[in-house]
Amino acid sequence: MINYHLANQEIAIRLLIAAVLGGLIGWDRQRKEGVAGLRTHMLVCVGSCLIMIVSAFGFSDIMGKPSIVLDPSRIAAQVISGVGFLGAGTILFLRPQIIIGLTTAAGLWAVAGIGLAVGGGLYFPACIAALIILIILSLLKPFEKRFFKSTRGKTMTLFYNSKLISLGQIESILMKYELSTSEIFIHSNKDSSSDELKVTFDYNSVPSKILSALDEFKSTEGINEINSQI
């Protein structure tokens, strides 16, 4: 007879493994100031693990009875769509014309998969997947910076009134948040009161500091419009 019961010790082990694996990935995102950090990734992984355990073993009291059929994947499958909404929240909460958080959203989705694997007792695939995800998030970043410099730079474009604010004042705000630039483009329009300044930041610039600078520029007199890509 098939045993549909899972011992309490095994349940605890699976939940703890899920917490550790989710925490490793969450620590990486927290260190890089991702939208979702350590606790969020741990919660997603542990929650997914628990749902998988419930889906596979939560109905052991009725299994084996006539006309009872169980599909262990039915409840667990809802995790994928549920995490999709959570991942979307890490992207859509940002301000207009600023798109960041895609990597974090993908990481949350992957962490949910790890939690499901651990909940199903697939420890080896879960650990290997966690290792691969950490390599992708940490070790591939230098290669991405090297080979995709022209398309992945963090940029900010300011349309400003040079009569109300000077380039020196703009530079002071950037220096206030320790933002270093790799490229600056200035376009002066004689037929308009709005000049254009496009700044490309270094790749080690922290997104949260760029956002703080954007906030200050929005409240600065003389700044007419701001476009940015982070």
TrEMBL record:
Pfam families: MgtC. The chain crosses the membrane at residues 12-28, 40-63, 75-94, 99-116, 122-140. It is a multi-pass membrane protein. One of its GO terms (cellular component) is plasma membrane. Its main location: membrane. Residues 15-145 form the MgtC/SapB/SrpB/YhiD N-terminal domain. The keyword Membrane applies. The keyword Chloroplast does not apply. Keywords: Cell membrane, Membrane, Transmembrane, Transmembrane helix. Coiled coil: none annotated. Belongs to the MgtC/SapB family. PANTHER family: MAGNESIUM TRANSPORTER YHID-RELATED (PTHR33778:SF1), PROTEIN MGTC (PTHR33778). This is MgtC/SapB/SrpB/YhiD N-terminal domain-containing protein. It comes from Chryseobacterium piperi. The lineage of its organism: Bacteria, Pseudomonadati, Bacteroidota, Flavobacteriia, Flavobacteriales.
